[in-house]
Design goal:
11 helices, about 15% strand, elongated, 2 domains, about 50% helix, about 230 residues, Rossmann fold, Arc Repressor Mutant, subunit A, five-stranded parallel sheet, 9 strands
Amino acid sequence: MRPAALSELPARAAAPSEPIRVFLADDHGVTLWGLHKLIQSAAPRLALAGSASSCSELLAHRALGETDLVLLDLELADGSALECVAPLVERHGLRVVLLTGDLDTAQHREAVQRGARGVVLKSQPTALILEAIDRVHRGELWVGRALMTALVEQKLGPADDATRRIGTLTPKEVQVIQALVHQRGAKSLVLAAELGMSENTLRNHLTVIYAKLGVQRRLNLYLYALEHRIGKG
């Protein structure tokens, strides 16, 4: 079964002729060698930016400044790669795809909550790994159906607290959330046009909504809205 793909971020600005620069992080030499060959086989669409075997080496690597996306093994030489995800996303502005042989959905969910936008199993065909890289680079979420279900069903806070938070939303803010839910996958430009506002105004609304509901990023707002049925009706 193909993973679910949900567009939630703008694609990185790049000329069509520019390759997606992929950084590889894995502490198994044979796996890293195979991933090198996989990226090379997809040239000129993909290009290898660099590689590392530990989280500390990864975060200090000079090549991150020339990287678009990190293909990250769940376990690195110095521990769990989950600690790398947030710095890669928040400090360096990179897309992250988790590549793992571990079937633990809880860890996959935590990686997504920290900012990863793709989860691919090592047992899956190489064509799916390449497609995941391409989709995530374009701004989509690439996860399995089971993980998507777990994300939606996860409790995001006590019901009374959620009711209080939702009660602070203005009618316009509720309208923004409804548009986000009903037009899932739409880019900011499309959402802004539907709402009759500029992209900058939409961003301002989203910033306030995030603060009121205690969530971060459009994916988490989307899941919160589904959980608490804000976008229904």
